[in-house]
UniProtKB/TrEMBL annotation:
Gene Ontology biological-process entries: iron-sulfur cluster assembly
Protein family according to the UniProt entry: Belongs to the iron-sulfur cluster assembly SufBD family.
Entry-linked InterPro entries: Fe-S_cluster_assembly_SufBD, SUF_FeS_clus_asmbl_SufBD_core, SUF_FeS_clus_asmbl_SufBD_sf, SUF_FeS_clus_asmbl_SufD
SUPFAM superfamilies: Stabilizer of iron transporter SufD
Start and end residues of each SUF system FeS cluster assembly SufBD core domain: 131-355
Protein name per the record: Fe-S cluster assembly protein SufD
Pfam families per record: SUFBD_core (PF01458)
Length: 385
């Protein structure tokens, strides 16, 4: 791991990278990467430096877990572990601050060729402290291993954290991340995935809770045959700000990616942001990629910003495309259901259930699917849908 700043690459999609927050200029909110984010609601994370962080504040509570399947271990590792920083080099100020400020990282290791039948479920409870907190998680999936991992965050926190995920050659990981913070919580997170040859990740990112949640997910490849499927489900209520940014960096031939995010919004002041960037470098021949974002506005006063981007440096690809749509209820769908005797309120619920059904169906844990479906139902009932 180097501590030197890395020179900016030639593309707009990748800016300065460094492990030091001081290498990034102070945020003003006018930057392209931050223009949608209400900095005043970050509880000071945007203004802090590594020197402002005390040892106590830099400690993230350990992830609790019960019995683990064979071939899976969860341990704490120090900052000097060679794996730390091997996948993710921060490319924004808060991510770098989190990297400098955590004390102990959580290592989730799936041994080579391990295929645990049961999902690994790890939960973090943020507690009640409003002190800025910093975390780091490293997920290591061994060669030809195959596993399902659920990372769930609840409670109250002001958190900046990084998650590094290394999937070795032939490895398969189904990752479900659930962000269901308390109403006043704030989080800025970067999840970085690196895929080996013929490795695959299916990531379902669910974001429901928190006052302001900003999540950045990025993927790169180290060998041919890598596959990334990235799905997202988010529901902004009241004055929540939920922001999702993605960067899929195709730098290796014959790899694929698919990004599909869906969000619902209700309440005056609810705001969601989705920015999807796919970079196909000149050597990434044979790439196949597609990204799509859909947003459903359930009430007046809600706002959804959706920005898909493609940067293509070679014409020798299988295919590349993107789509984005934001709209209200389909009157024809409502009419169809109501014409068959279904009351309007119940018809609206059925439309929202159908909107999210495909993504919920990709979560391989039945109990979690049912719980998330119930949480969405509660939000709809709250709004009188």
């Amino acid at each position: 791991m180097t501590t030197e700043a890395i020179a900016p690459p030639k593309t707009k999609s990748q800016a300065l990278r460094s492990f030091h927050a001081a290498d990034f200029p102070a945020l003003t909110g006018r930057e392209e990467e931050w223009r949608f984010t209400p900095l005043k609601r970050l509880h000071g994370l945007d203004r802090m430096s590594a020197g402002d962080v005390s040892g106590e504040a830099a400690h993230w509570p350990a992830i609790g877990h019960g019995a683990l399947p064979e071939g899976v271990t969860v341990t704490g590792i120090g900052r000097d572990d060679a794996r730390i920083g091997s996948v993710l080099t921060p490319f924004d100020r808060i991510s770098a601050l989190a990297f400098e400020s955590f004390e102990t990282a959580t290592l989730v290791r799936i041994a080579p060729e391990a295929t645990p039948a049961e999902p690994v479920v790890l939960k973090v409870d943020g507690g009640l402290s409003g002190t800025p907190t910093f975390g780091h998680t490293f997920v290591e999936v061994g060669t030809f291993a195959e596993a399902t991992l659920v990372l769930e965050q609840t409670g109250y926190a002001t958190l900046a954290d990084n998650v590094e995920i290394a999937v070795a050659d032939g490895g398969r990981l189904t990752l479900v991340t659930v962000t269901d913070w308390a109403a006043d919580a704030v989080q800025a997170q970067h999840v970085k995935v690196r895929l080996g040859r013929d490795a695959r990740i299916l990531h379902v990112q669910v974001t429901l809770g928190g006052n302001l949640v900003r999540q950045f997910t990025s993927v790169d490849y180290t060998g041919r045959g890598g596959e990334a499927e990235l799905y997202g489900l988010y529901f902004a209520d009241g004055e929540q700000h939920l922001e999702h940014r993605l960067l899929v960096d195709h730098s290796v031939p014959d790899c694929t990616s698919y990004v599909g995010y869906r969000g619902a919004l209700q309440g005056d002041g609810a705001h969601t942001v989705w920015v999807g960037d796919v970079l196909i470098q000149d050597q990434a021949t044979g790439t196949s990629t597609y990204e799509v974002n859909r947003n459903l506005l359930l009430s007046d006063g809600a706002r959804a910003d959706s920005v898909p981007n493609l940067e293509i440096e070679t014409g020798e690809i299988v295919g590349a495309g993107h789509a984005s749509a934001t709209g209200r209820f389909d009157d024809e769908q409502l009419f169809y259901l109501m014409a068959r005797g279904i009351p309007e309120a119940e018809a609206r619920k059925l439309v929202v259930r159908g909107f999210f059904a495909e993504l919920l169906g990709k979560i391989p844990v039945e109990e979690l699917r049912e719980r998330l479906g119930a949480a969405i139902e509660q939000r709809l009932e709250k709004a009188g849908a």
